[in-house]
């Protein structure tokens, strides 16, 4: 098949890679590959840490995609951080939030180890004053920028163009992140996220996801560098892609309470991007009402984690017409919005 893919973020590139591997003729169009949400993402592969009430279907998809990551990463030559994630609460109310999340994991059949303060410190001696939490052994992370670079290296010679040179294709896959072209744009709700990258000499073993007096923050160490990612705000606002003072202050204030040694870290970068959200927080993967037009979009908070699964679902659809009902874009009516 001749497949045209709009968008070279982690999703579009993963789809391109999968289709090329299956022998299809692929062209990717993107004026600025890898510059969207994939550039900001912390890279947590975190079905358990992301699980929440009412999102059981999403947790199921995230777990399926996590199972694809070891092969995906080793084929791309990208290291995966597999030392697990600590979910922690700073005060009694925060520990209640952690316990609510653990109740969701019980329902989903996902295992975890509930821990008191002392055990948490055994896992991560650099933790500050935390009241309780849990160890999520299966929640990993990658550096999304390395993944995008590896995918681009895999597909670049053949396929990536800044502008369309030919529109001839059997199938068009739309993977343009938080901005879909008409008539699909109303299917996406951009959710702004600010994130801070720092560099530290203090070794952190685990990813830490924390509730801090009702605020959520995560601190993600890299497996192969001294970079630590502190994220992320979540706001439904438009305007220029500039991190706000308030957003960055809240992130840093929460992060340094959980990992006090971050006070000595150097700030490397502050970034703001829009997550591609949907009305039901599930992705949009599969056919539209237009013949030959397929969506690979709406991965929201989990696009890094979900990329290999979305790639597989799109390639299966292109080859056999199969559709995963939970993510079928036709569950929503599209508005003609010019
Ligand atoms: C702060 C933050 C932290 C995050 N952390 C995580 C995390 O830890 N784990 C996780 O799994 N997910 C995380 N996410 C979510 C994840 O980043 C996204 O779900 C994912 O990057 C979406 O990938 P994408 O390829 O669909 O979109 P993008 O990465 O946004 O890529 C879209 C691409 O389309 C291109 N484009 C736009 N318009 C057009 C057009 N008309 N024609 C051609 N190309 C076009 C853009 O240039 C861009 O390269 C995070 C997101 C944010 C913002």
Task: Describe the fold and architecture.
The protein is of the alpha/beta class and 338 residues long. It has helices at residues 10-21, 37-40, 47-50, 56-76, 92-108, 117-123, 144-159, 245-258, 303-320, and strands at 2-6, 25-29, 44-45, 85-89, 113-116, 132-136, 140-141, 160-161, 171-174, 189-199, 207-212, 215-221, 227-231, 266-277, 284-287, 293-297. Strands 5-6-4-11-12-13-10-14 form an eight-stranded mixed beta sheet. It has a six-stranded mixed beta sheet with strand order 8-2-1-9-16-15. Strand 15 (284-287) and strand 16 form a beta hairpin. It is globular, with a radius of gyration of 20 Å.
The counted number of beta strands is 16
Low-confidence stretches: none
What percent of residues are in strands? 15-25%
Helical region count?
9
Structural class comes to alpha/beta
List cofactors, ions and other ligands.
flavin-adenine dinucleotide
Assembly form of the protein? single chain
Measured distance between first and last alpha carbons: 29 Å
Describe the strand arrangement of the main beta sheet, using strand numbers.
Answer: 5-6-4-11-12-13-10-14
Query: What's the pLDDT, averaged over the residues?
Result: 95
């Amino acid at each position: 098949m001749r497949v045209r893919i709009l968008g070279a973020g982690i999703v579009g590139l993963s789809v391109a890679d999968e289709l090329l591997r299956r022998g299809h003729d692929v062209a990717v169009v993107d004026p600025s590959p890898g510059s969207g949400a994939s550039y900001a993402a912390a890279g947590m592969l975190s079905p358990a840490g992301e699980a929440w009430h009412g999102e059981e279907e999403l947790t199921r998809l995230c777990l399926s995609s996590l199972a694809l990551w070891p092969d995906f990463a080793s084929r791309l030559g990208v290291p995966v951080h597999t030392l697990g994630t600590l979910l922690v609460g700073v005060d009694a109310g925060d520990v209640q939030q952690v316990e609510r999340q653990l109740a969701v994991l019980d329902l989903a059949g996902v295992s975890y180890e509930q821990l008191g303060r002392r055990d948490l410190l055994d896992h991560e001696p650099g933790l500050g004053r935390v009241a309780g939490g849990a160890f999520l052994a299966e929640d990993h992370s990658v550096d999304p920028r390395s993944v995008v670079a590896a995918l681009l290296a895999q597909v670049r010679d053949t396929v990536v163009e800044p502008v369309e040179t030919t529109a001839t294709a059997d199938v068009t896959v739309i993977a343009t992140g938080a901005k879909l072209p008409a008539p699909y744009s109303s299917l996406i709700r951009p959710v702004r996220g600010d994130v801070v990258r720092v560099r530290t000499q203090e070794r952190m073993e685990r990813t830490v996801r924390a509730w801090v007096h009702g605020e959520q923050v995560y601190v993600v160490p890299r497996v192969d560098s001294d970079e630590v990612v502190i994220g992320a705000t979540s706001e439904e606002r438009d305007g220029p892609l500039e991190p706000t003072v308030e957003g960055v202050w809240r992130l840093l204030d929460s992060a340094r309470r959980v990992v006090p040694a971050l006070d000595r870290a150097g700030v490397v970068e502050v970034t703001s991007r829009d997550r591609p959200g949907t009305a039901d927080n599930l992705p949009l993967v599969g056919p539209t009402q237009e013949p030959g037009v397929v969506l690979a979009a709406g991965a929201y908070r989990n696009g890094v984690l979900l990329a290999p699964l979305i790639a597989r679902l799109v390639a299966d659809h292109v080859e056999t017409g199969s559709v995963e009902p939970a993510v079928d874009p036709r569950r929503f009516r599209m508005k003609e919005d010019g």
